[in-house]
Amino acid sequence: MNLITAESLTRAFQSTVAVDGINLSIKEGVCTALLGPNGAGKTTTLNMLTGLIKPTGGSIAFDERYHGDRRQYIGYLPQFPKFYGWMSGQEYLMYTGQLCGLTKKAANERAEELLTLVDLAEAKRKRIGGYSGGMKQRLGIAQALVNNPKLVILDEPVSALDPIGRREVLELMKKLKKTTSILFSTHVLHDAEEVSDDIFIMNRGKVVIEGGLAELQTKYQKPTIYIETEEEPDIWCRALKKKEWFRHMHLDKKQLTITVENINTAREELLADATLHKLKPLRFEVVRTTLEDLFMEVAKK
Amino acid sequence: MRQWFILFKKECLESVRNFKWLWIPIVFILFGIMQPVTSYYLPQILESFGGLPEEALFDIPVPSGPQILAETLGQFSQIGYLVLVLAFMGVIAEEKNSGTQLMILVKPVSYGAYLTAKWAHMSLLAVTSFILGFSFAVYYTHVLIESVPAAHVIKGAVVYILGMLFVMTLILLFSTLFNSRAAVAFLTLGLTIVVSLLSSLMPNTMRWSPGMLSSHAYSIFGTGEGGEAMWLSIACTLLIISVMVGIAVYIFRNKETASHSS
Which of B106, B109, B253 to mutate to test the interface with A (most CBs of A within 10 A)? Predict the structure, then answer.
């Protein structure tokens, strides 16, 4: 069941086409990542889905079961959430809760619940002006959830955070995944791989690759062998290029990364190679690449 | 309607916390007191500054009560409007530029309610400040000079308030149109001055205009009756205000909320 379906969605600004006829289908109960380099059109796409920007072409349809204003069913965290600095965290959540139609009492309860969820219960009476970046981000997530949305849209939720804040938010997203659908944008592939089920990779306003994470991984991930030696391996490794399992190689001084076709044959042959033993190997490791190569390839185009 | 009230309450709370509800009324009260007091003590004030030259052999007449009240309104129309414009020139632009607006309008909030709540709040603050300031003016006029019939005062004040609402609506409209606060302030003050100048220069062609309202108020203070065609200008002002609010809402709805990031 698709929560949101966008068909040939287009948005042109005066001189540039930020989003160029993309098709998106966001499934219910799934965490979807919109991945792409900076300037790929991710924010514009998300803003169109929320209704903050009007598309210049194409259509957006929300699940028919949820009729009326689709803003009712969406929670949104912009890339740079800005709050009223003079309000306290609790006041802000109550304000937004009431705007979403909760009664004062219900909004208060919901605010308490969310403040505990995002671990801000202690700072709830503090003015938001005095919050740290990570706290603001967590409050941003809390306000996106205030109306129990069917779909939570997060624009670059972890990009501006330090490693600790980043970890906190990713853990929070994993928790949220169980109860609601998430659509988030990121330019960091690793984050997308960590929490999402579906991935859309965008570049220059177009969706270049889409699919389930597992599906993309089997399709694009290449088994790789990493070898580190004491001696320079560059003469030896030239010979490897002729092997039938060989695909690609990268040599950085004494660190050799070989992408292979068939991991088992490659491993057997390499380990049996007497020359390699003479190079005094320090490490021999079978690794799986992330989608990094794919992403870089797509982003470069 | 409940949502409108929540938005309205937030505006009030914000203005309380940034002290707009304190200093704007204080400005109006100061000018409300100053006008009758300085008029009454003018001879003594001149004396203390060295007096008039011998040749100036005329008496400074103590102005009448209605005259003082009219002069107070004159002060409000200059300093008062300036203060209000400076306080509210960013009423829409501020939230738009800072990005707080985005997070509210992505919630199921009516754009019209968002805008009219802001308008209602700034009008309430302006009118309250005016009533406070003008009450002081009336009181001191009563104590120092002469009392003006209460009915005249109230009628005149109501007519003047309408003119104030016109200015507040101008701020709202320009604030929805332009992101620059300077532009909002400049256009609002400029247009207000132009309208009132035109109205005093050619009262016949401008008989419908909101700029006529203050002269009607002056005349009510004196005689209890507004000038010629007062109802025409009242009706036109009401119409202009509602049309401007309508245009502001229309523009606000159709203007892009989120800007294209680079």
Answer: B106
